[in-house]
């Protein structure tokens, strides 16, 4: 990248502290998350406060306290005033998190660290964004773009991609989850493919996770066991994040009559539970496809709970019947209803406490998790906790409070009367529009103090007579006229007046709503509690824990094994590891260095205070330009930028004159405060580039910039009056000059020395910027030499593409083919051809890009593909397809004629049938794989799970289809395989099918029933299948065929470079020998992505022919 990239961790490195980092891109400073915890570490705040004046934007990943907790303090107390970017759910649920967090402390102590006004001030600065929305930075961030991408884990969770001027990118991805859950989709892995810099976390390293099925079973069995024994269950959750997954799961379990849970109460409890659920209802579009399907097809909101009840106070909770299951916040058990319920319920052995997430070391939650993981789990446990209570004042304390309050009221009354008396003596009241803001505020304050006071102090007659000429005052009600602005069309319309009111909830409104509900129910309202004088007490208590303790991980983060695979696939050029314990971080760093072959200096594991320089170019340095030098530069437009040649003298300190000028121009500042808040990033050491005297400026050769295209050059020359046309890939100008592009990108110009040559050269220098041109001048006309002879072996798509490319370069071409017909294996390919940003996509409004295509190809190849070849394949796909279309290849509407289904080439049946809903069974009548898995996966499953058929001599499996799947595939084509090829046999029902498979009908029936339940969402598919095209009815006809793996495409072969030139084992090139198609290897890796075979032939075949045509005539071929 062309910008300096620096990174500093303020928190969240080498320990379990919340994440907060500063990323510097050029002169722009991002703050990446701003978490805090209930320890309220002020050392972190001091570090963040020094950065606050410099921060230009804050990027929030998730709405929980661990990612936004410190913002109220930094905004309200430290002056953080920059824009804050967050998705809509993070904006809404973030308010709920902070409101509930504040109230959890305020209920039991006089909480002074931040106020609700600070919370509201934070969200006044938040700019809401949507996924994949490109947001451009302003000011110092000109050219920078941020893009929020789905991250899973919590609703609205975000992976941030930061780019500058379309260059390589920075990806900030922490705490993400790639797995699909009930209410959230996983993060798309292509969003973190091949970034220039990846910032990710090591939080889950060293943690083993249960499969979702076993985890849910453990939760359900624990709940059932406790409730049936007469105990209560406390599930410790957060406010509005992971709790949505849990409450959705439990509400569904309660709805299942077979679970036997309808007799028990299910309760979701925190200070803002009602608003959390209401916000969840309005944000279904941010959730999983399953939630959307329930909402759209079922006409019911998935968060319209049928069994879960909402509670906002302990008084409400006591009115609900026991036994009960309560999901209560806060997750660290250091505050909130969860702590209160734990202290009340832990002394009963019938009760159960379920912890769903880890917390900071030292918290009550972490201590309980240590108890769970200790070998001596059975028996009584003791734990010492600090108990805080808010109690009413009684006796002499209450009397003292009332006396003190009365004195304060009397003092306030005296002060108010004194202020009123002084205002009455004011001689002049200014009504000019130019009054200062401070005077207006004082006037407003006075009006608010006595809004209905229309009297004025009596003055003598001389007072009013003498002032009559200058100002006349009459007693009247205060009135302030609002001036309406007009333009040529009438009153100015303000768009804000017509915008829909923003959905924003403030704590005052929440408490007012709650007050109305509680008053109806006879519960003391918060207003009443505030009117009753109270005091806060705290004491240390040793608690004996008799209740059952369980830790069931519902954090929803990517496990360490998956993270390693993601890193293998994404292949970042540099990586910064954060948010993990020291040992875990070092393990992951060592894995990156060894398994990903990353250099030592490309894997960063920073500690607090470390400044990481992640600028990839080693020749980049930061300089300041003096005004004199900047004014002397002559900029030239090149596409969207301006460039200039710079000559200057490097100075490490500015001159005395410049320093003096700076002192004169400087404003008065508070030097002590600035020194206190300043951040030392070595700004004093940045050298200056000063102007050189004209006599000392050295000369330099011309520099050519850009990548010329002959087609663009032809058009430009014709506009300037030249005659230009292509002949065998060479641009001929005025029949005296020929211009062709060499393999290394340079332009080769041949011709005679004449006026046209100089005129064309002047046009080049005046209007275009190219790489260095090699110019060969002759004193006579060009003499046509013997053309090169290119021999192409094979007439498949790769061979024909090579032959055409070589011919267009002016070479003589001979194609050798051993078969009687041309076409090779390409004539049998019917899977289509892949491509991105093709003309067809553009016409149909399909948005695609090479990065997604690259990610899909690398994922299919298990990451062992040749990255350079794949990058070239994906970026050249559109040109290759457009080139085929230009020469007459029809790539549209490739369907089989229904009148002649046996005519022409058929589909690759096994592939297409699986996509249409086929079911795969082994010889025992049971499923053994995800039918929609890739080819290599299914081949491995057949080889490991199925038996060998004696008549075939290979391991086989059974493929089942019903009429619905046949129609999806195409009945005419299917009947070709069924009736003419006899691949399929028809069974009228399951009993006949069982006889054909030689298994019991009950086993096949059970298999089809489990498959239908997985398709309906009643259970998880054991093989991870999420798309079910059809469901099998045991009483309807079923078609069955045997399948076995075969090789239909070769993915390995000769090693080639990006010019399709064949390489030896040592990497050296074999001159004159090029390869493409099935004969070459490296593009597909371990498995080929369907549709890439034809594309590989078209792309690398054309490249091979193009470069083969550049081999000099008479050159010796290398040893083969």
From TrEMBL:
<keyword id="KW-0274">FAD</keyword>
<comment type="function">
    <text>CPSF plays a key role in pre-mRNA 3'-end formation, recognizing the AAUAAA signal sequence and interacting with poly(A)polymerase and other factors to bring about cleavage and poly(A) addition.</text>
</comment>
<dbReference type="InterPro" id="IPR035639">
    <property type="entry name" value="CPSF2_MBL"/>
</dbReference>
<dbReference type="InterPro" id="IPR027075">
    <property type="entry name" value="CPSF2"/>
</dbReference>
<dbReference type="Pfam" id="PF10996">
    <property type="entry name" value="Beta-Casp"/>
</dbReference>
<dbReference type="InterPro" id="IPR011108">
    <property type="entry name" value="RMMBL"/>
</dbReference>
<dbReference type="GO" id="GO:0006398">
    <property type="term" value="P:mRNA 3'-end processing by stem-loop binding and cleavage"/>
</dbReference>
<dbReference type="GO" id="GO:0016156">
    <property type="term" value="F:fumarate reductase (NADH) activity"/>
</dbReference>
<dbReference type="Pfam" id="PF16661">
    <property type="entry name" value="Lactamase_B_6"/>
</dbReference>
<dbReference type="InterPro" id="IPR022712">
    <property type="entry name" value="Beta_Casp"/>
</dbReference>
<protein>
    <recommendedName>
        <fullName>Cleavage and polyadenylation specificity factor subunit 2</fullName>
    </recommendedName>
</protein>
<keyword id="KW-0507">mRNA processing</keyword>
<feature type="region of interest" description="Disordered">
    <location>
        <begin position="427"/>
        <end position="446"/>
    </location>
</feature>
<dbReference type="InterPro" id="IPR027477">
    <property type="entry name" value="Succ_DH/fumarate_Rdtase_cat_sf"/>
</dbReference>
<dbReference type="Pfam" id="PF07521">
    <property type="entry name" value="RMMBL"/>
</dbReference>
<dbReference type="Pfam" id="PF00890">
    <property type="entry name" value="FAD_binding_2"/>
</dbReference>
<keyword id="KW-0694">RNA-binding</keyword>
<dbReference type="InterPro" id="IPR003953">
    <property type="entry name" value="FAD-dep_OxRdtase_2_FAD-bd"/>
</dbReference>
<keyword id="KW-0560">Oxidoreductase</keyword>
<keyword id="KW-0285">Flavoprotein</keyword>
<dbReference type="InterPro" id="IPR025069">
    <property type="entry name" value="Cpsf2_C"/>
</dbReference>
<comment type="subunit">
    <text>CPSF is a heterotetramer composed of four distinct subunits 160, 100, 70 and 30 kDa.</text>
</comment>
<dbReference type="InterPro" id="IPR036866">
    <property type="entry name" value="RibonucZ/Hydroxyglut_hydro"/>
</dbReference>
<feature type="domain" description="Beta-Casp">
    <location>
        <begin position="243"/>
        <end position="368"/>
    </location>
</feature>
<keyword id="KW-0539">Nucleus</keyword>
<dbReference type="GO" id="GO:0005847">
    <property type="term" value="C:mRNA cleavage and polyadenylation specificity factor complex"/>
</dbReference>
<comment type="similarity">
    <text>Belongs to the metallo-beta-lactamase superfamily. RNA-metabolizing metallo-beta-lactamase-like family. CPSF2/YSH1 subfamily.</text>
</comment>
<dbReference type="Pfam" id="PF13299">
    <property type="entry name" value="CPSF100_C"/>
</dbReference>
<dbReference type="GO" id="GO:0003723">
    <property type="term" value="F:RNA binding"/>
</dbReference>
<dbReference type="InterPro" id="IPR036188">
    <property type="entry name" value="FAD/NAD-bd_sf"/>
</dbReference>
<dbReference type="InterPro" id="IPR001279">
    <property type="entry name" value="Metallo-B-lactamas"/>
</dbReference>
């Amino acid at each position: 990248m062309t910008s300096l990239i620096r990174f500093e961790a303020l928190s969240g490195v080498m320990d379990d502290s919340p994440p907060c980092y500063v990323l510097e891109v050029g002169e722009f400073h991002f703050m990446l998350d701003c978490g805090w915890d209930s320890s309220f570490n002020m050392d972190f705040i001091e570090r963040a406060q020094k950065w606050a004046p410099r921060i230009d934007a804050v990027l929030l990943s998730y709405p929980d306290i661990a990612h936004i907790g410190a913002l109220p303090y930094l905004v309200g107390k430290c002056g953080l005033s920059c824009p804050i970017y967050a998705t809509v759910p993070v904006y809404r649920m973030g308010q709920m998190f902070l409101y509930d967090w504040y109230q959890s402390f305020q209920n039991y102590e006089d909480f002074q660290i931040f106020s609700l006004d600070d919370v509201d001030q934070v969200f006044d600065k938040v700019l809401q964004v949507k996924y994949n929305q490109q947001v451009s930075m302003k000011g110092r961030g000109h050219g920078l773009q941020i893009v929020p991408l789905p991250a899973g884990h919590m609703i609205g969770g975000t992976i941030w991609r930061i780019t500058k001027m379309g260059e390589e990118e920075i990806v900030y991805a922490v705490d993400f989850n790639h797995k699909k859950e009930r209410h959230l989709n996983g993060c798309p892995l292509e969003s973190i493919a091949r970034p220039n810099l990846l910032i990710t976390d090591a939080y889950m390293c060293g943690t083993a996770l249960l499969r979702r099925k076993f985890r849910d079973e453990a939760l359900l069995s624990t709940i059932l066991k406790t409730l049936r024994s007469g105990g209560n269950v406390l599930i410790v959750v957060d406010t509005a994040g992971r709790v949505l997954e849990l409450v959705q799961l439990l509400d569904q379990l309660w709805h299942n009559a077979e679970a036997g849970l309808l007799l028990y109460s299910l309760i979701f409890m925190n200070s803002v539970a009602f608003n959390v659920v209401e916000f969840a209802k309005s944000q279904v579009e941010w959730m999983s496809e399953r939630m959307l399907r329930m909402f759209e097809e079922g006409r019911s909101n998935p968060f319209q709970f049928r069994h879960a009840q909402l509670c906002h106070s302990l008084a409400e909770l006591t009115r609900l019947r026991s036994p009960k299951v309560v999901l209560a916040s806060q997750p660290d058990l250091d505050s909130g209803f969860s702590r209160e319920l734990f202290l009340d319920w832990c002394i009963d052995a019938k009760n159960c406490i379920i912890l769903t997430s880890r917390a900071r070391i030292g918290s009550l939650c972490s201590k309980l998790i240590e108890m769970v993981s200790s070998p001596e789990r059975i028996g009584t446990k003791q734990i010492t906790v600090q108990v805080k209570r808010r109690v009413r004042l009684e006796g002499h304390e209450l009397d003292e409070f009332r006396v003190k309050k009365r004195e304060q009221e009397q003092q306030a009354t005296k002060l108010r009367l004194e202020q009123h008396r002084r205002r009455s003596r004011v001689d002049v009241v200014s009504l000019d529009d130019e009054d200062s803001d401070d005077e207006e505020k004082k006037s407003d304050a006075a009006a608010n103090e006595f809004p209905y006071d229309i009297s004025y102090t009596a003055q003598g007659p001389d007072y009013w007579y003498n002032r009559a000429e200058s100002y006349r005052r009459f007693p009247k009600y205060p009135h302030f006229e609002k001036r309406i602005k007009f333009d040529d069309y009438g009153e100015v319309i303000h768009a804000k007046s017509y915008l829909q009111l923003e959905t924003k909830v403030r704590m005052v409104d929440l408490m007012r709503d709650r007050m109305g509900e509680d008053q109806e129910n006879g519960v003391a309202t918060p207003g009443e509690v505030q009117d009753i004088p109270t005091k806060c007490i705290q004491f240390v208590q040793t608690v004996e824990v008799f209740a059952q303790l369980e830790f069931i991980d519902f954090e929803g983060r990517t496990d360490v094994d998956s993270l390693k695979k993601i890193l293998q696939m994404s292949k970042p050029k540099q990586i910064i590891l954060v948010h993990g314990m020291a040992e875990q971080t070092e393990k992951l760093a060592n894995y990156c260095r060894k398994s990903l072959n990353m250099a030592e200096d490309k894997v960063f594991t920073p500690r607090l205070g470390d400044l990481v320089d992640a600028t990839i170019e080693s020749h980049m340095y930061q300089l300041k330009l003096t005004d004199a030098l900047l004014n002397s530069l002559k900029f030239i437009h090149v596409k969207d930028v301006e460039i200039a040649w710079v000559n200057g003298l490097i100075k490490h300190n500015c001159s005395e004159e410049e320093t003096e000028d700076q002192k004169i121009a400087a404003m008065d500042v508070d030097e002590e405060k600035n020194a206190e808040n300043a951040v030392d990033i070595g700004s004093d050491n940045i050298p200056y580039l000063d102007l050189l005297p004209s006599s000392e400026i050295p000369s330099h050769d011309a520099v050519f910039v850009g990548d010329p295209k002959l087609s663009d050059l032809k058009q430009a020359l014709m506009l300037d009056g030249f005659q230009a046309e292509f002949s065998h890939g060479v641009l001929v100008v005025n029949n005296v000059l020929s211009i062709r592009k060499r393999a290394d990108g340079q332009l080769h110009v041949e011709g005679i020395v004449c006026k046209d040559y100089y005129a064309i050269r002047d046009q080049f220098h005046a209007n275009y910027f190219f790489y260095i041109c090699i110019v060969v001048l002759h004193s006579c006309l060009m003499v046509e030499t013997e053309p090169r002879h290119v021999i192409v072996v094979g007439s498949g798509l790769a061979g024909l593409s090579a032959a055409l490319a070589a011919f267009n370069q002016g070479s003589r071409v001979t194609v050798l083919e051993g078969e009687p017909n041309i076409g090779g294996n390409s004539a049998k390919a019917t899977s289509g051809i892949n491509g991105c940003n093709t003309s067809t996509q553009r016409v149909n409004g399909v948005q695609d890009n090479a990065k997604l295509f690259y990610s899909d190809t690398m994922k299919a190849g298990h990451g062992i593909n040749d990255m350079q070849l794949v990058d070239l394949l994906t970026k050249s796909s559109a040109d290759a397809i457009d080139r085929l279309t230009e020469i007459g290849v029809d790539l549209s509407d490739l369907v089989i004629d229904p009148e002649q289904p046996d005519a022409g080439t058929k589909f690759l049946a096994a592939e297409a049938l699986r996509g249409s809903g086929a079911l795969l069974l082994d010889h025992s009548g049971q499923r053994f794989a995800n039918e929609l898995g890739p080819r290599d996966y299914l081949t491995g499953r057949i080889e490991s799970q199925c038996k060998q058929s004696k008549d075939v001599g290979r391991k086989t499996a059974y493929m089942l289809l019903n009429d619905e799947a046949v129609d999806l595939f195409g009945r005419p084509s299917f009947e070709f395989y069924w009736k003419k090829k006899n691949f399929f046999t028809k069974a009228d029902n399951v009993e006949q099918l069982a006889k054909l498979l030689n298994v019991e009908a009950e086993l096949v029936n059970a298999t089809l029933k489990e498959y239908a339940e997985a398709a309906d969402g009643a259970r998880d598919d054991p093989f991870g299948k999420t798309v079910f095209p059809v469901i099998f009815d045991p009483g309807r006809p079923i078609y069955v065929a045997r399948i076995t793996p075969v090789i239909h495409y070769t993915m390995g072969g000769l090693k080639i470079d990006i010019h399709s030139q064949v390489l030896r084992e040592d990497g050296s090139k074999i001159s004159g020998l090029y390869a493409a198609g099935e004969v070459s290897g490296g593009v597909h890796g371990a498995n080929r992505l369907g549709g890439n075979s034809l594309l590989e032939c078209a792309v690398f075949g054309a490249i091979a022919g193009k470069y083969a045509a550049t081999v000099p005539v008479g050159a010796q071929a290398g040893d083969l």
